[in-house]
# Entry
Amino acid sequence: MDKNFFLALAASFILIISCKNDKDVIVNGDKILQVSQDAVFSKIVPENNYGNTEDIHLYAWTQSGVINVNRVAISFDLLELPTGAIIDSAFISVYFNSTSRYLGLNPEGHSGENSFLIQTLTEEWEESNVTWDTQPNSSMENQILVENSDDPTQDYTNIDVSPLISGVNFDQYYGFLLRHQFEDPYKVTFLASSEHPTGSIRPTLHVYYHTIE
# Structure
């Protein structure tokens, strides 16, 4: 018997074990989730809240000789998934904001060595009051590296964040932190938030899941 047979046999056993009886059925599905909350926070104004803005731009620049850094917290509404859903994989998409009020930094768009990280948030936060000083903690475990942009107006679509969310307990999901990999000047990544008037460039999370019925 070849290796593929044994793999198929093992998968069959897993499927049997995962079901409680012979009437249970595994149903696969997928859904594109919208943002439940997102906010950008800024090191140079550590007590300011920016939870109601069209921009969630990552940023490392100098202002009056002082280095400023922006980070972004973002969360999606997992309650839009069916009751009992188990997440198998997920892909986040964030889009270039061509109408950003901050494009004066670089009118062409994204600038600098702007690779960024996506990390798991590990505590609760609120869009309406999160600031640099109160930003939620995040974990570097399984963090996702997004490489430097190839184009100044690049969208970042279908970034695989499965290692951060597969099988997650919904009660322990707090969203993601986005931050530049190297937070030194000069770089900026212009992203549209969930408040942007153009719905097609608001962030989304495409989730693939299964339920047992």
